[in-house]
Amino acid sequence: MPRGTDHRPRYEQVAAELREQILTGDLAPGAQLPSTAQLMARFDAANATIQRALKSLKDEGFLNSRVGKGVYVRNQPPLVIDTGAYLPPDGSFSYELIDVETLSPPADVAAALGLADGEEAVRRRRILLHDGQPLELSASYYPADIAANTALSKPGKIKGGAPKVLAGLGLPQRAFVDRVSARPPTREEVEMLDLPVRTPVIRQLRVVLSDDDRPVEASVLVKGAHLYELQFRRLVSDPEANDV
């Protein structure tokens, strides 16, 4: 039963319906969209409304026009990222290091790492690229008392990555906890990720735990929601325990 009213402009409502069909696969990659006249009839909308909705989806990368042929769904489906992996096993993905600093982390990161007021952390910021295009901003934080005088606190890429450094310190990664939210992007995120207008981002806060559930790393991963789907995997040992 409806509990509210959709006050968005009509073109945004139309774009939302088409976007949902693309994301669910009802409009498959490479499929041609119905004609403008058919869309006008389906959504009971004016031509200008349909054209604005299509432009919005083109700007987001969901659609592309072929001169003299029509409008088609992008050939590539959303990138499905397993939350258990930092980097997809695909050579077309790469990282660029932005900076390395020692600073006071955001409040949620400080709490996740168990830092007291005033305690600092080493932050390593990176950008994830796919075929040279920006996809994700990430900032990984390490308690300063762990990272000081290690490769974690120095500029430059780390051979073997942070897990190798932590393991060498006697802090092997044993588990992680993810918290995922969605929100409008900051100005920096819009510019760094080259986001289309009104595109939200997925914010993933990952806390890595070592032995005795000691937090040794907290990463904030920000992705454009128009490009990604996150995949969570869970083993259920007792299915009946989930009955409601």
Assigned CATH class of the largest domain: Alpha Beta
What structural category characterises the helix and strand content? Answer: alpha+beta
Q: What does the overall shape look like?
A: elongated
| Share of residues in strands | 25-35%
What does this structure look like?
Helix 1 packs across helix 3 and helix 2 crosses helix 3. This protein has two domains: about 10-75, Winged helix-like DNA-binding domain superfamily/Winged helix DNA-binding domain (Arc Repressor Mutant, subunit A), CATH 1.10.10.10; about 80-230, Chorismate lyase (3-Layer(aba) Sandwich). It starts with 9 loop residues before the first helix and ends in a 13-residue tail after the last strand. Helices cover about 25% and strands about 30% of the residues. The longest helix has 15 residues, at about 10-25. The chain is built from seven helices and ten strands. The chain has helices spanning about 10-25, 35-45, 45-60, 105-115, 145, 160-170, 185-195, and strands at about 65, 70-75, 80, 95-105, 120-130, 135-145, 175-185, 200-210, 215-225, 230. The mean pLDDT is about 90. The strands form three sheets. It has a six-stranded antiparallel β-sheet. Strands 1-2 form a two-stranded antiparallel sheet. Strands 3-10 form a two-stranded parallel sheet. The protein has about 240 residues and is of the alpha+beta class.
